[in-house]
Structures are given as C-alpha cells and as structure tokens.
Design a protein that fits this description.
Blueprint lengths: L29 E2 L11 H11 L11 H11 L6 E4 L1 H13 L5 E5 L4 H9 L3 E5 L8 H5 L6 E7 L11 H10 L5 E5 L15 H6 L3 E6 L12 E4 L2 H10 L7 H12 L1 H24 L3 E2 L6 E5 L3 H12 L3 E2 L1 E2 L8 E5 L3 H16 L1
Parallel strand pairs: 1-11, 3-4, 3-5, 5-6, 6-7
Antiparallel strand pairs: 2-8, 7-8, 9-10, 10-13, 12-13
Helix pairs in contact: 1-9, 2-9, 3-4, 10-12
Length: 361
C-alpha cells in the first residue's frame, strides 16, 4: 500500500544530533559537550520561571512585546524590528522557509554550524561550503563561491565549532561583495563572549542595509538553553516576513519571563563572560602543553585536534569512561578533533588531567 511521500530529498537528510548527555555508569557526569553555561542561569531568571508557571493555563503574549522591549532597551535597538523565536534556531529555519526556493544555493563556512546545511536541504536548496584555511575563513573564500543561484549566506561569528572570529573588515567586505538580493545572516549565538573591539555582530549592517539579519540566543551566555528563546534584528521588510511565517505563540510564557529577568541580571552575565575569558585561553594553553593542537576561541568552548580520527574517538571514549563528556567532531566533518565546552574550575581541571592521563598511557 502506498503511503504519503515527503518532499524530494527529505529522507536523504541526516538528522541533527546534539551533544551526548550521559556516560554509562555515572549518575551525574560532567557534561562539556553542548556549550552550555556551567553556572546554570541567573537566580532572577529562575525566580521568574517559577512565577510564570503559576499562570501556565494562559497563552503567552503572541507578540512577545515585553521581551522585545527589554531587548531593545538592552541593545539600543528598535523593538519593531526585533522578532523572537523558539531559540535562534527557529528563526534561522524560518528565514530558510521564507526566502529559499528550489535550486537556490546557500553558502556557509566549510566547518560551520551543521544547521545551515540542513536548512538548505529542507527547503530543496543546495548547500555550498566556502573553503577554510587552517580552520579560518575570510570574505574572499565566501565570495569565490557566489553564483547567480546564491540566495542566502550564513555566517556564524564567532564560529561553532572552530571558535574563529571574523574581523569587522572581513565581515563588511563579505557583505559588500554580495548581490543586493542575497540575504546575509550573521549568527551571533556566542556574541556576548566576544571581548575583541574589532567585532562585527551585524547590528550596524542591519541599520544601513536591507539584506542583513543578525540573530542572538539566550541559550549560551544567559544559560537558558532548556527554554529555547532567541531573537533576530532585521530590516523592517524581513521582520514583516518572519512575523507572517512564525507560529502565533512561538515563545512560551516561561521563556519570555525568564529571558526578561536574565537581561536585567548583568552581574550573572558578567560572571559567566569573565569565567570564559579566563578559562578558554587557559584550556588552549594546557592542551598545547600536552602536545595536542588547540585553537583560539571567541566562544565558550575550545576545539582540540589529535593525530588521527581514531585517536580522537579514543579520547572521547576514555573521558566518557571517567564520567567526562566532550564532543567528537566527526559529525561536523572534522574527524580527528574534539570540542570541549568551558566548565567550572573543577570540571576543566578534571578534563585536562584526564587528557594528560590519556596522552601518557
């Protein structure tokens, strides 16, 4: 008997898989596989969640008005050009749904976030990888792949999983080289961790151009990954499109309340950012002392390179046997690498010590 068929190509897509959360034999393993905030979330956000749950029978504000106003105040942006979503992932998905046509091309970095390729495939578009050199990418690499079919460019800045930060000059060169009908999406999931004055997060470009969108999330620095809430700063025309394709109540009431409270707790945010600023370069240095490759990171994680893909797999398994979870990068197209999120002082020391034991064995 014939069954309903999905769109062509859907069944060829390999589903996205997040970081592993468990280690056999450990009830409470140390999880450093998903770039989560090692301090949890703001106490103010936690209290706001509890309060919001008392009205769980009520629909949330479909316009996400108060949260958009809080974001606008925090970042000095016009609220009417902000669109909130169920994580920034949903907003990236909606951009693909709204703007991609069959056969369009979507550019992304060779070792960029996996979701970009999936968005292209889900919309019968063609993902095109711009080449990296030593895990770094520049404007020319992207522009060398632009064709008449290019419709959208995804740029994660900082990039996950490499941690690379594209300088402002390169971001603007990339945008200047794109046709005006190509949408540049700057994904700033790790933007709050950046302490480089030469950073282009996209807001200024959105202010002056109609083909740039900048997205942010509350999942990383704010520690609200479990609530799934993100936002996009858009040209008015793009905001109008997103508000036509998003679900009416796509950000739940608990998430809205918690995110508003998180924005107000600057002490917690600064604590989280300061901790990453201390530990990311320290992890990089300690790993290099052990004879492994490690890369400077502008995010809350460090990419570590081993001699072979098999050695990287072995390290991941060795750490898991000790209740320490990091993430192998085979799924990202980087066999021979693992990615370690920045954890607490104790977590980081435990993983570095275990890597040392692995090297010595």
């Amino acid at each position: 008997m014939k069954s309903p068929d999905p769109r062509p190509g859907i069944l060829d897509i390999k589903p996205y898989r997040g970081g592993v959360s468990d280690a056999p034999g450990f009830d409470a393993p140390i999880k450093l596989s998903s770039n989560e905030n090692c301090f949890g979330c703001s106490p103010d956000a936690s209290a706001a969640m509890t309060k919001a749950l008392a009205s769980a029978e009520r629909y949330p504000d479909g316009g996400v008005t108060l949260l958009r106003e809080a974001i606008a105040k925090t970042y000095d942006l016009p609220a009417d050009r902000l669109v909130c979503g169920c994580g920034s992932d949903e907003l990236l998905q909606l951009l693909g749904k709204a703007y991609l046509r069959d056969g369009d091309e979507v550019l992304h970095a060779q070792n960029g976030f996996l979701t970009y390729k999936l968005i292209a495939l889900q919309n019968c578009a063609v993902p095109i990888a711009a080449p990296e050199t030593n895990l770094c990418i520049d404007a020319d690499a992207f522009l060398s792949k632009v064709s008449a079919r290019t419709r959208m460019v995804f740029l994660a800045n900082p990039n996950n999983p490499t941690g690379f930060l594209m300088p402002r000059k390169e971001v603007r060169k990339l945008h200047a080289g794109l046709p005006k009908d190509v949408l540049l999406v700057i994904d700033g999931a790790y933007a709050e961790f950046v302490r480089d004055d030469d950073y282009e997060g996209g807001f200024a470009l959105v202010n002056s151009h109609d083909n740039v969108v900048a997205t942010r999330t509350f999942s990383k620095s704010y520690g609200l990954a479990g609530l799934r809430v993100g936002w996009a700063y858009c040209p008015k025309t793009v905001a109008a499109v997103l508000n036509r394709v998003r679900s009416p109540f796509n950000v739940n009431a608990v998430a809205q309340s918690a995110a508003i409270a998180a924005l107000g707790d600057t002490d917690f945010l600064n604590k989280s950012v300061d901790h990453v600023a201390k530990w990311a370069p320290k992890i990089e240095a300690e790993v290099k002392k052990l004879g492994l490759k490690a890369f400077p990171s502008a995010g809350n994680f460090v990419l570590i390179g081993l001699s072979t893909p098999e050695e990287a797999d072995a390290l991941e398994q060795f750490l898991s046997a000790r209740g320490l979870i990091i993430r192998g990068m085979r799924g990202f197209g980087l066999p021979g690498y693992v990615r370690m999120s920045v954890g607490t002082d104790e977590d980081n020391k435990a993983v570095i010590a275990a890597i040392s034991d692995f090297i010595r064995q």
